What we know:
The chain is of the alpha/beta class. It has helices at residues 39-42, 63-73, 104-113, 116-119, 121-130, 141-165, 186-193, 206-209, 214-219, 268-271, 273-286, 299-306, 326-333, 344-349, 363-372, 374-392, 394-407, and strands at 52-56, 78-82, 94-95, 172-176, 197-202, 222-225, 238-239, 259-265, 289-295, 311-313, 338-340, 356-357.
Amino acid sequence: MTKDTGLMPMTPYSETPKDSRRPQREPSIRSPKGFNASPEETINPKSLHPRILHIAPFNTAGLPAAFVKAEQALGYESRLITFSPNEFAFEEDLCLDLPWMNGRTFRAMRNVLSSASRRSKKGLEATASSGKVPLVWKPHFLEANLIAWRERLWRPKIEEALKRLDFFSFDIYQFDGGMDFYRQGEIAKALQERGKKIVCCYFGSDLRTRGVLSALDEISEINFTVEFDHLQLHPEIHYLFFPFDPWRFQPVERNNTRLRLFHSATNRRYKGSNHIIEIGQRLEEEFEVDFVFMENTSHEQVLTAKQHSDIVIDQITNMGGVGYGISSLEALSMGIPVCTRLTPEYEAFIPDHPFVHVTPDTLYDQLVALIRDPALRLHHGRHSREWVEAHHDARNIVRHMHAMYKERGWEG
């Protein structure tokens, strides 16, 4: 059976800053109706806003849910349907819990069968420099057969879920990650035939290493991305700052007797974690500091550890994306200085950023400067919170998206 919101209910967008140091949990809600609600209950004929459905393989880094919560806070009826639960326990709205999505066995089989270009970043760089963008998903014969087998397995569950949701009653459909339930765009084509509006939003590495699904890309009327480097990988894409709710966190001045340096990773190679760990351990020996490293840990556990930290190190490579993501935004919102690597192009794009720019060669010296200078840490921490509020408030980002929809006549 399809999982409803009762298992992992989504919390609403925070309206005001909280007084607690810990991220606050709002009362659980079913927004706007439970998964088993009838079409008559879910449709609001008096609403002037379009009804929006987000479709995503996972609630990756909480990003799809951030769009939904911000739209709900602005008065839209918005839902999120995911293929499978996020492995780091980000909350869910409507989760189909489809099999063979991200288990170790399936990932191992897919990696073996995938084309070399999907596994290699050099292939991506060559594609970008050649001007032949976007990269299009062209699976190896065996990978295509594996995906087709999985979709046949999924079909009965998907069809049942779409009927129960009254799937085709929404107005705007946002494919987060640029993924249809079926790789040949079967659902998107059915939406197009019904005159529905279709949007894609890309994030993470899929546009870099998988590419677009050609059937969906041809149908999508607007493409968004929260990844700066994606601007080089698709000729018709609009950049958005990562939507985020900074009001879940309250910055406080920390009084640790020993400074705490923090780093977390789900992929060591992408973040340069091995070098970061080496530097962190060296600093533990030379200064009165503790270095905390967390790997493949639940989001809640990472937040708990991060909120007690004095300095956060995000990444020192650009292999998994340029600059920063939700981990940095959480730390910035807590008023914690963040060290990360930015390309010259990205620094020029966000000249007022609060980050401490680091590379493998400069990480040690930059951390020593922060360790030795409490005033410098305080300066970065205060600027960090102000910058997140100014640039990443999800409600402002959603307002920008819907202004584009209004220009196209999609809403009044």
